[in-house]
Amino acid sequence: MLKQMLSAKIHRATVTQSNLDYEGSLTIDKDLMDAVGISTFEQIKIFNINNGERFDTYAIDGPRGSGIIGLNGAAARKGMAGDLIIIVTYGIYSEEELKNYHPRVALLNEKNQIKKLLP
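Request: output the structure for the sequence above.
Response:
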């Protein structure tokens, strides 16, 4: 049996910008993407802690070390700078893969820097 499980999570990221006049997506500091294994153009789910919005989009690279978390295009209607969000991806895992399964989770501080990386 295959199971869909959490693969990556960036927890309590602060939105740094919102750009309605863009094709769409979420810009994420490339260092944060690498830390949890999110790929460029990978589908992501976003949960806005401030307003309860939940939506899907895709990840694009932001400058390394910038701390950027940018809502672009239609996603810009789902939040604003200063909002706290959770960014997640899911993967499909076999029973064999689940024996050593651990999602990659980054807990962020208010500057979008990793304060703790799990596991």
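The mean pLDDT is 97.
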